[in-house]
Amino acid sequence: MLSNSLIELDRAHLIHPVASWRGHEKAGVRMLTSAKGATVTDANGKTLIDGFAGLWCVNAGYGQETVIEAATRQLRELPYATGYFGLGSEPPIRLAARLADLAPGDLKHVYFTLGGSDAVDSTVRFARYYWTARGLPQKDQFISLEQGYHGSSTVGAGLTALPVFHAGFGLPMDWQHKIPSHYTYRNPVGSDPAAIIAASVAQLRAKVQEIGGAERVAAFYAEPIQGSGGVLVPPAGWMKAMRDVCTELDILFIADEVITGFGRTGPLFACAEDGIVPDMMTCAKGLTSGYVPMGAVFLSDRLYQVIADHAGAAAVGHGFTYSAHPVSAAVGLAVLDLYEGGLLENGRKMGARLQAGLAGLADHPLVGDVRGRGMLAAVELVTDKALKTPLPAAALPSQRIFDRAWENGLVIRAFGNGVLGYAPPLCCTEAEIDGIVERTRLTLDQTLEDADVRAALR
Ligand code: PLP
Questions:
Q1: Do 415 and 267 fall within a single domain?
Q2: Which of 50, 144, 333, 416 could form a disulfide with 221 if both were Cys (CB 3.0 to 4.6 A apart)?
Q3: Is a pLDDT exceeding 90 seen at residue 394?
Q4: Residue 206 Cα, ligand 1 centroid: separation in angstroms?
Q5: How many Cα atoms occupy the beta-carbon half-sphere of 310 within 13 Å?
Q6: Is 159 part of a structural domain of the chain?
Protein backbone atom coordinates (compact mmCIF):
# COMPACT_ATOMS: atom_id res chain seq x y z
CA MET A 1 0.00 0.00 0.00
CA LEU A 2 1.05 3.58 -0.61
CA SER A 3 1.81 5.05 2.80
CA ASN A 4 0.53 8.48 3.82
CA SER A 5 4.06 9.58 4.61
CA LEU A 6 5.16 8.90 1.02
CA ILE A 7 2.22 10.91 -0.30
CA GLU A 8 3.20 13.75 2.02
CA LEU A 9 6.86 13.61 0.94
CA ASP A 10 5.78 13.74 -2.70
CA ARG A 11 3.49 16.70 -2.03
CA ALA A 12 6.16 18.58 -0.15
CA HIS A 13 9.18 17.97 -2.36
CA LEU A 14 8.65 16.41 -5.77
CA ILE A 15 7.62 18.67 -8.64
CA HIS A 16 5.78 16.66 -11.31
CA PRO A 17 6.17 17.44 -15.04
CA VAL A 18 3.38 19.27 -16.90
CA ALA A 19 1.13 19.22 -13.84
CA SER A 20 -0.95 21.73 -11.92
CA TRP A 21 1.30 22.10 -8.88
CA ARG A 22 -1.62 23.09 -6.64
CA GLY A 23 -3.87 20.44 -8.19
CA HIS A 24 -1.26 17.80 -7.54
CA GLU A 25 -0.82 18.89 -3.93
CA LYS A 26 -4.56 18.21 -3.51
CA ALA A 27 -4.81 15.00 -5.52
CA GLY A 28 -1.60 13.35 -4.35
CA VAL A 29 0.48 10.87 -6.28
CA ARG A 30 -0.80 7.68 -7.91
CA MET A 31 2.21 5.43 -7.65
CA LEU A 32 3.35 2.44 -9.67
CA THR A 33 5.42 -0.22 -7.95
CA SER A 34 6.22 -2.89 -10.55
CA ALA A 35 5.66 -3.90 -14.17
CA LYS A 36 6.00 -6.90 -16.44
CA GLY A 37 5.43 -7.25 -20.17
CA ALA A 38 2.56 -4.91 -21.08
CA THR A 39 1.17 -4.57 -17.55
CA VAL A 40 1.88 -2.30 -14.59
CA THR A 41 0.96 -2.71 -10.93
CA ASP A 42 0.06 0.19 -8.67
CA ALA A 43 0.70 0.71 -4.98
CA ASN A 44 -2.69 -0.80 -4.13
CA GLY A 45 -1.70 -4.04 -5.86
CA LYS A 46 -3.95 -3.39 -8.85
CA THR A 47 -2.60 -4.69 -12.18
CA LEU A 48 -3.48 -2.78 -15.35
CA ILE A 49 -2.77 -3.05 -19.08
CA ASP A 50 -0.44 -0.19 -19.94
CA GLY A 51 -2.15 1.11 -23.06
CA PHE A 52 0.27 4.04 -23.24
CA ALA A 53 3.65 2.28 -22.68
CA GLY A 54 4.55 4.69 -19.89
CA LEU A 55 4.80 7.87 -21.95
CA TRP A 56 4.78 6.29 -25.43
CA CYS A 57 8.21 4.89 -24.68
CA VAL A 58 8.30 1.35 -23.27
CA ASN A 59 7.99 -0.16 -26.75
CA ALA A 60 9.74 -3.41 -25.79
CA GLY A 61 7.61 -3.92 -22.68
CA TYR A 62 8.70 -4.17 -19.06
CA GLY A 63 11.05 -6.68 -17.44
CA GLN A 64 12.95 -7.77 -20.54
CA GLU A 65 15.78 -9.86 -19.05
CA THR A 66 18.26 -9.32 -21.89
CA VAL A 67 17.94 -5.56 -21.47
CA ILE A 68 18.39 -5.77 -17.71
CA GLU A 69 21.45 -8.01 -18.16
CA ALA A 70 23.00 -5.68 -20.76
CA ALA A 71 22.58 -2.68 -18.46
CA THR A 72 23.93 -4.56 -15.44
CA ARG A 73 26.97 -5.84 -17.37
CA GLN A 74 27.78 -2.36 -18.65
CA LEU A 75 27.30 -0.79 -15.20
CA ARG A 76 29.86 -3.26 -13.85
CA GLU A 77 32.39 -2.97 -16.67
CA LEU A 78 32.32 0.73 -17.50
CA PRO A 79 29.43 2.81 -16.12
CA TYR A 80 30.62 6.02 -17.71
CA ALA A 81 32.97 7.20 -20.45
CA THR A 82 33.00 10.66 -21.90
CA GLY A 83 33.00 11.18 -25.64
CA TYR A 84 34.98 14.40 -25.16
CA PHE A 85 38.75 14.59 -25.82
CA GLY A 86 38.54 11.88 -28.48
CA LEU A 87 37.59 9.29 -25.86
CA GLY A 88 34.79 6.76 -26.24
CA SER A 89 33.40 3.36 -25.39
CA GLU A 90 32.18 0.37 -27.36
CA PRO A 91 28.37 0.40 -26.95
CA PRO A 92 27.65 3.83 -28.52
CA ILE A 93 29.98 3.07 -31.44
CA ARG A 94 28.19 -0.22 -32.13
CA LEU A 95 24.75 1.34 -31.64
CA ALA A 96 25.50 4.27 -33.97
CA ALA A 97 26.78 1.89 -36.65
CA ARG A 98 23.73 -0.39 -36.42
CA LEU A 99 21.31 2.54 -36.45
CA ALA A 100 23.07 4.15 -39.42
CA ASP A 101 22.62 0.88 -41.26
CA LEU A 102 18.90 0.75 -40.46
CA ALA A 103 18.04 4.44 -40.96
CA PRO A 104 16.54 5.69 -44.22
CA GLY A 105 18.82 6.90 -47.02
CA ASP A 106 22.05 8.70 -46.14
CA LEU A 107 21.24 9.37 -42.45
CA LYS A 108 24.61 7.82 -41.66
CA HIS A 109 25.81 9.93 -38.72
CA VAL A 110 24.35 9.73 -35.21
CA TYR A 111 24.63 12.22 -32.34
CA PHE A 112 23.41 10.77 -29.03
CA THR A 113 21.57 12.98 -26.53
CA LEU A 114 19.77 12.38 -23.23
CA GLY A 115 16.23 12.44 -24.57
CA GLY A 116 13.98 14.00 -27.19
CA SER A 117 14.06 17.65 -26.13
CA ASP A 118 17.82 18.00 -26.33
CA ALA A 119 17.77 16.04 -29.60
CA VAL A 120 15.45 18.72 -31.01
CA ASP A 121 17.69 21.46 -29.53
CA SER A 122 20.65 19.81 -31.20
CA THR A 123 18.94 19.94 -34.62
CA VAL A 124 18.47 23.69 -34.25
CA ARG A 125 22.16 24.10 -33.39
CA PHE A 126 23.30 21.86 -36.26
CA ALA A 127 20.96 23.60 -38.71
CA ARG A 128 22.31 27.02 -37.76
CA TYR A 129 25.89 25.76 -38.01
CA TYR A 130 25.19 24.15 -41.39
CA TRP A 131 23.79 27.34 -42.94
CA THR A 132 26.66 29.38 -41.49
CA ALA A 133 29.07 26.87 -43.02
CA ARG A 134 27.34 27.32 -46.37
CA GLY A 135 27.79 31.09 -46.11
CA LEU A 136 24.07 31.66 -45.46
CA PRO A 137 23.84 32.58 -41.75
CA GLN A 138 20.74 34.69 -42.47
CA LYS A 139 18.79 31.42 -42.88
CA ASP A 140 17.84 31.51 -39.20
CA GLN A 141 14.02 31.14 -39.14
CA PHE A 142 12.32 27.85 -38.21
CA ILE A 143 8.81 26.61 -39.06
CA SER A 144 6.78 23.89 -37.36
CA LEU A 145 3.14 22.80 -37.20
CA GLU A 146 0.24 23.82 -35.01
CA GLN A 147 -0.61 20.91 -32.67
CA GLY A 148 3.08 19.92 -32.97
CA TYR A 149 5.14 18.83 -29.98
CA HIS A 150 8.93 19.07 -30.01
CA GLY A 151 9.92 18.95 -26.36
CA SER A 152 10.10 21.05 -23.25
CA SER A 153 13.48 22.78 -23.43
CA THR A 154 13.17 26.49 -24.20
CA VAL A 155 13.95 25.93 -27.89
CA GLY A 156 11.81 22.79 -28.21
CA ALA A 157 8.88 24.29 -26.28
CA GLY A 158 8.98 27.26 -28.68
CA LEU A 159 8.78 24.93 -31.69
CA THR A 160 5.96 23.12 -29.87
CA ALA A 161 2.55 24.62 -30.58
CA LEU A 162 0.63 23.64 -27.45
CA PRO A 163 -0.39 26.80 -25.54
CA VAL A 164 0.38 25.40 -22.08
CA PHE A 165 4.07 25.16 -23.05
CA HIS A 166 4.15 28.87 -23.99
CA ALA A 167 1.99 30.67 -21.42
CA GLY A 168 4.12 32.39 -18.81
CA PHE A 169 7.38 31.31 -20.45
CA GLY A 170 7.71 34.10 -23.04
CA LEU A 171 7.46 31.65 -25.94
CA PRO A 172 7.60 31.12 -28.85
CA MET A 173 10.72 33.08 -29.76
CA ASP A 174 10.55 35.48 -32.72
CA TRP A 175 12.34 33.07 -35.06
CA GLN A 176 9.87 30.25 -34.40
CA HIS A 177 6.86 30.15 -36.73
CA LYS A 178 3.86 27.84 -37.17
CA ILE A 179 1.60 26.72 -39.99
CA PRO A 180 -1.72 24.87 -39.52
CA SER A 181 -1.71 21.12 -38.94
CA HIS A 182 -3.10 18.61 -41.44
CA TYR A 183 -5.64 17.52 -38.72
CA THR A 184 -7.82 15.46 -41.08
CA TYR A 185 -10.87 15.26 -38.81
CA ARG A 186 -11.12 19.01 -38.34
CA ASN A 187 -9.40 20.50 -41.36
CA PRO A 188 -11.19 23.62 -42.75
CA VAL A 189 -10.64 22.32 -46.31
CA GLY A 190 -12.48 19.06 -45.49
CA SER A 191 -11.20 15.51 -45.31
CA ASP A 192 -10.11 14.96 -48.93
CA PRO A 193 -6.42 13.91 -48.73
CA ALA A 194 -5.39 15.77 -51.89
CA ALA A 195 -7.03 19.00 -50.68
CA ILE A 196 -5.35 18.71 -47.26
CA ILE A 197 -1.93 18.14 -48.83
CA ALA A 198 -2.42 21.04 -51.26
CA ALA A 199 -3.46 23.31 -48.37
CA SER A 200 -0.40 22.38 -46.27
CA VAL A 201 1.94 22.93 -49.21
CA ALA A 202 0.37 26.34 -49.89
CA GLN A 203 0.56 27.27 -46.19
CA LEU A 204 4.24 26.36 -46.00
CA ARG A 205 5.04 28.36 -49.15
CA ALA A 206 3.03 31.34 -47.86
CA LYS A 207 4.76 31.25 -44.46
CA VAL A 208 8.18 31.14 -46.12
CA GLN A 209 7.25 34.23 -48.18
CA GLU A 210 5.81 36.01 -45.13
CA ILE A 211 9.03 35.69 -43.16
CA GLY A 212 11.34 36.91 -45.89
CA GLY A 213 11.61 34.12 -48.45
CA ALA A 214 13.57 30.87 -48.54
CA GLU A 215 16.82 32.79 -48.04
CA ARG A 216 15.68 33.39 -44.43
CA VAL A 217 14.35 29.92 -43.56
CA ALA A 218 16.61 27.28 -41.98
CA ALA A 219 14.30 24.33 -41.42
CA PHE A 220 10.81 22.87 -41.29
CA TYR A 221 9.85 20.33 -38.59
CA ALA A 222 7.24 17.60 -38.77
CA GLU A 223 6.34 14.54 -36.74
CA PRO A 224 5.34 11.70 -39.11
CA ILE A 225 2.26 11.44 -36.85
CA GLN A 226 1.61 14.31 -34.45
CA GLY A 227 1.61 12.68 -31.02
CA SER A 228 0.95 15.07 -28.15
CA GLY A 229 -1.28 17.20 -30.39
CA GLY A 230 -3.78 14.29 -30.29
CA VAL A 231 -2.35 11.54 -32.55
CA LEU A 232 -3.01 13.37 -35.81
CA VAL A 233 -2.23 11.18 -38.81
CA PRO A 234 -1.49 13.06 -42.05
CA PRO A 235 -2.93 11.77 -45.32
CA ALA A 236 -0.63 9.36 -47.21
CA GLY A 237 1.74 11.47 -49.29
CA TRP A 238 1.70 14.49 -46.95
CA MET A 239 5.24 13.97 -45.63
CA LYS A 240 6.56 13.47 -49.16
CA ALA A 241 4.84 16.63 -50.44
CA MET A 242 6.26 18.73 -47.59
CA ARG A 243 9.69 17.18 -48.04
CA ASP A 244 9.59 18.05 -51.77
CA VAL A 245 8.75 21.71 -51.04
CA CYS A 246 11.69 21.90 -48.63
CA THR A 247 14.04 20.33 -51.18
CA GLU A 248 12.86 22.76 -53.86
CA LEU A 249 13.33 25.80 -51.59
CA ASP A 250 16.60 24.56 -50.04
CA ILE A 251 15.08 24.40 -46.54
CA LEU A 252 16.11 21.57 -44.21
CA PHE A 253 13.38 19.00 -43.53
CA ILE A 254 13.63 17.64 -40.00
CA ALA A 255 11.54 14.61 -39.04
CA ASP A 256 10.82 14.33 -35.32
CA GLU A 257 10.47 10.57 -34.75
CA VAL A 258 10.68 10.71 -30.96
CA ILE A 259 7.30 8.94 -30.72
CA THR A 260 7.01 7.27 -34.13
CA GLY A 261 10.49 5.69 -34.13
CA PHE A 262 11.31 2.12 -33.14
CA GLY A 263 8.30 0.23 -34.37
CA ARG A 264 5.54 2.43 -32.99
CA THR A 265 3.83 2.72 -36.38
CA GLY A 266 5.08 -0.60 -37.83
CA PRO A 267 8.54 -0.21 -39.37
CA LEU A 268 11.60 0.83 -37.37
CA PHE A 269 11.18 4.43 -38.60
CA ALA A 270 7.93 5.93 -39.88
CA CYS A 271 9.83 8.00 -42.47
CA ALA A 272 10.64 4.78 -44.31
CA GLU A 273 6.91 4.08 -44.70
CA ASP A 274 6.40 7.66 -45.89
CA GLY A 275 9.13 7.09 -48.50
CA ILE A 276 11.20 10.10 -47.49
CA VAL A 277 14.71 10.78 -46.26
CA PRO A 278 14.86 13.85 -43.99
CA ASP A 279 17.99 16.00 -43.61
CA MET A 280 17.90 15.28 -39.89
CA MET A 281 15.82 12.91 -37.80
CA THR A 282 15.32 12.90 -34.02
CA CYS A 283 14.60 9.83 -31.89
CA ALA A 284 14.32 8.96 -28.18
CA LYS A 285 11.74 6.91 -26.21
CA GLY A 286 11.76 3.53 -28.03
CA LEU A 287 15.52 3.89 -28.63
CA THR A 288 16.05 2.55 -25.11
CA SER A 289 12.42 1.58 -24.55
CA GLY A 290 12.35 3.93 -21.56
CA TYR A 291 14.66 1.72 -19.46
CA VAL A 292 17.26 4.52 -19.29
CA PRO A 293 17.30 7.98 -20.86
CA MET A 294 18.70 8.46 -24.36
CA GLY A 295 17.88 10.34 -27.55
CA ALA A 296 19.57 10.68 -30.92
CA VAL A 297 19.90 12.99 -33.90
CA PHE A 298 20.57 11.39 -37.28
CA LEU A 299 22.38 13.67 -39.74
CA SER A 300 22.45 13.14 -43.48
CA ASP A 301 25.89 12.56 -44.94
CA ARG A 302 25.52 15.83 -46.91
CA LEU A 303 24.99 17.87 -43.72
CA TYR A 304 27.69 16.06 -41.84
CA GLN A 305 30.33 16.69 -44.51
CA VAL A 306 29.53 20.41 -44.78
CA ILE A 307 29.75 20.87 -40.99
CA ALA A 308 32.92 18.79 -40.68
CA ASP A 309 34.65 20.64 -43.53
CA HIS A 310 33.70 24.04 -42.17
CA ALA A 311 34.93 23.27 -38.65
CA GLY A 312 38.15 21.77 -39.94
CA ALA A 313 40.53 21.41 -37.03
CA ALA A 314 38.23 23.43 -34.69
CA ALA A 315 35.70 21.81 -32.35
CA VAL A 316 32.01 21.82 -33.26
CA GLY A 317 30.98 23.26 -29.88
CA HIS A 318 28.03 21.10 -28.96
CA GLY A 319 28.03 18.37 -26.33
CA PHE A 320 26.65 17.06 -23.05
CA THR A 321 28.33 15.23 -20.17
CA TYR A 322 26.08 12.27 -20.90
CA SER A 323 26.29 12.28 -24.74
CA ALA A 324 26.76 8.69 -25.97
CA HIS A 325 26.38 7.24 -22.47
CA PRO A 326 27.68 3.63 -22.47
CA VAL A 327 24.92 2.19 -20.25
CA SER A 328 22.17 3.80 -22.32
CA ALA A 329 23.84 2.59 -25.51
CA ALA A 330 24.18 -0.96 -24.12
CA VAL A 331 20.44 -0.86 -23.40
CA GLY A 332 19.83 0.50 -26.91
CA LEU A 333 21.69 -2.44 -28.43
CA ALA A 334 19.76 -4.99 -26.36
CA VAL A 335 16.44 -3.35 -27.23
CA LEU A 336 17.38 -3.31 -30.92
CA ASP A 337 18.05 -7.06 -30.71
CA LEU A 338 14.51 -7.49 -29.40
CA TYR A 339 12.98 -5.35 -32.16
CA GLU A 340 14.84 -7.32 -34.81
CA GLY A 341 14.20 -10.64 -33.06
CA GLY A 342 10.43 -10.57 -33.52
CA LEU A 343 9.10 -7.58 -31.59
CA LEU A 344 8.60 -5.38 -34.65
CA GLU A 345 6.76 -8.25 -36.29
CA ASN A 346 4.53 -8.74 -33.23
CA GLY A 347 3.96 -4.97 -33.06
CA ARG A 348 2.78 -4.96 -36.67
CA LYS A 349 0.31 -7.80 -36.02
CA MET A 350 -0.94 -6.31 -32.76
CA GLY A 351 -1.11 -2.86 -34.37
CA ALA A 352 -3.50 -4.15 -37.02
CA ARG A 353 -5.62 -5.75 -34.27
CA LEU A 354 -5.61 -2.54 -32.20
CA GLN A 355 -6.67 -0.39 -35.16
CA ALA A 356 -9.45 -2.84 -36.11
CA GLY A 357 -10.63 -3.11 -32.50
CA LEU A 358 -10.74 0.63 -31.90
CA ALA A 359 -12.45 1.18 -35.28
CA GLY A 360 -15.25 -0.97 -33.84
CA LEU A 361 -15.89 1.77 -31.26
CA ALA A 362 -16.99 4.18 -34.01
CA ASP A 363 -20.63 3.22 -33.35
CA HIS A 364 -20.43 4.49 -29.77
CA PRO A 365 -22.52 7.66 -29.21
CA LEU A 366 -19.50 9.55 -27.83
CA VAL A 367 -16.99 8.61 -30.54
CA GLY A 368 -16.45 11.08 -33.38
CA ASP A 369 -13.21 9.80 -34.85
CA VAL A 370 -10.88 6.81 -34.57
CA ARG A 371 -7.44 7.17 -36.12
CA GLY A 372 -3.93 5.83 -35.95
CA ARG A 373 -1.23 3.69 -37.50
CA GLY A 374 0.25 0.53 -36.02
CA MET A 375 0.54 0.71 -32.24
CA LEU A 376 -0.32 4.42 -32.14
CA ALA A 377 -3.97 5.43 -32.05
CA ALA A 378 -6.56 7.90 -30.80
CA VAL A 379 -10.29 8.05 -30.20
CA GLU A 380 -11.78 11.55 -30.35
CA LEU A 381 -14.94 12.13 -28.32
CA VAL A 382 -17.75 14.44 -29.42
CA THR A 383 -21.30 15.24 -28.32
CA ASP A 384 -22.63 15.58 -31.88
CA LYS A 385 -21.17 13.35 -34.57
CA ALA A 386 -22.52 15.33 -37.53
CA LEU A 387 -21.32 18.69 -36.20
CA LYS A 388 -18.19 17.16 -34.58
CA THR A 389 -18.96 19.14 -31.44
CA PRO A 390 -16.26 18.67 -28.81
CA LEU A 391 -17.45 17.86 -25.30
CA PRO A 392 -18.10 21.22 -23.60
CA ALA A 393 -15.16 22.37 -21.50
CA ALA A 394 -17.20 22.27 -18.30
CA ALA A 395 -18.15 18.66 -18.95
CA LEU A 396 -14.83 17.68 -20.41
CA PRO A 397 -14.30 14.52 -18.49
CA SER A 398 -10.63 13.82 -19.29
CA GLN A 399 -9.55 13.20 -15.72
CA ARG A 400 -12.77 11.33 -15.03
CA ILE A 401 -12.21 9.09 -18.06
CA PHE A 402 -8.59 8.50 -17.06
CA ASP A 403 -9.61 7.58 -13.49
CA ARG A 404 -12.42 5.37 -14.70
CA ALA A 405 -10.20 3.55 -17.22
CA TRP A 406 -7.75 3.00 -14.36
CA GLU A 407 -10.53 1.48 -12.26
CA ASN A 408 -11.32 -0.74 -15.25
CA GLY A 409 -7.70 -1.90 -15.39
CA LEU A 410 -6.46 0.21 -18.29
CA VAL A 411 -3.92 3.01 -18.55
CA ILE A 412 -4.67 5.41 -21.41
CA ARG A 413 -3.75 8.99 -22.17
CA ALA A 414 -6.78 11.27 -21.76
CA PHE A 415 -5.88 14.52 -23.54
CA GLY A 416 -7.57 17.66 -22.25
CA ASN A 417 -9.55 18.12 -25.46
CA GLY A 418 -11.48 14.85 -25.19
CA VAL A 419 -9.04 12.74 -27.18
CA LEU A 420 -8.00 9.33 -25.82
CA GLY A 421 -4.50 8.24 -26.80
CA TYR A 422 -3.10 4.70 -27.19
CA ALA A 423 0.51 3.55 -27.58
CA PRO A 424 0.78 0.09 -26.02
CA PRO A 425 4.04 -1.90 -25.80
CA LEU A 426 4.82 -3.87 -28.97
CA CYS A 427 4.97 -7.08 -26.90
CA CYS A 428 1.20 -7.03 -26.22
CA THR A 429 -0.69 -10.29 -26.63
CA GLU A 430 -3.96 -10.56 -28.56
CA ALA A 431 -5.82 -10.81 -25.24
CA GLU A 432 -4.19 -7.57 -24.03
CA ILE A 433 -5.11 -5.72 -27.22
CA ASP A 434 -8.68 -6.98 -26.94
CA GLY A 435 -8.63 -5.94 -23.27
CA ILE A 436 -7.64 -2.39 -24.25
CA VAL A 437 -10.61 -2.16 -26.62
CA GLU A 438 -13.12 -3.78 -24.23
CA ARG A 439 -12.06 -1.67 -21.27
CA THR A 440 -12.29 1.47 -23.40
CA ARG A 441 -15.86 0.60 -24.40
CA LEU A 442 -16.79 -0.06 -20.78
CA THR A 443 -15.24 3.28 -19.75
CA LEU A 444 -17.15 5.14 -22.49
CA ASP A 445 -20.43 3.42 -21.55
CA GLN A 446 -19.95 4.51 -17.93
CA THR A 447 -19.11 8.07 -19.04
CA LEU A 448 -22.31 8.15 -21.08
CA GLU A 449 -24.22 7.75 -17.80
CA ASP A 450 -22.76 10.96 -16.35
CA ALA A 451 -25.50 13.59 -16.10
CA ASP A 452 -23.35 16.41 -17.52
CA VAL A 453 -22.23 14.31 -20.48
CA ARG A 454 -25.80 13.11 -21.18
CA ALA A 455 -27.05 16.70 -21.05
CA ALA A 456 -24.44 17.76 -23.60
CA LEU A 457 -25.14 14.84 -25.95
CA ARG A 458 -27.22 15.34 -29.06
N1 PLP B 1 9.56 15.37 -29.82
C2 PLP B 1 8.44 14.66 -29.80
C3 PLP B 1 7.71 14.37 -31.07
C4 PLP B 1 7.95 14.15 -28.58
O5 PLP B 1 6.80 13.47 -28.56
C6 PLP B 1 8.67 14.41 -27.40
C7 PLP B 1 8.18 13.89 -26.10
O8 PLP B 1 7.10 13.37 -25.97
C9 PLP B 1 9.84 15.16 -27.48
C10 PLP B 1 10.27 15.62 -28.70
C11 PLP B 1 10.62 15.46 -26.23
O12 PLP B 1 11.21 14.31 -25.74
P13 PLP B 1 11.65 14.23 -24.20
O14 PLP B 1 10.42 14.26 -23.38
O15 PLP B 1 12.41 12.91 -24.16
O16 PLP B 1 12.57 15.37 -23.93
A1: no
A2: 144
A3: no
A4: 28
A5: 18
A6: yes
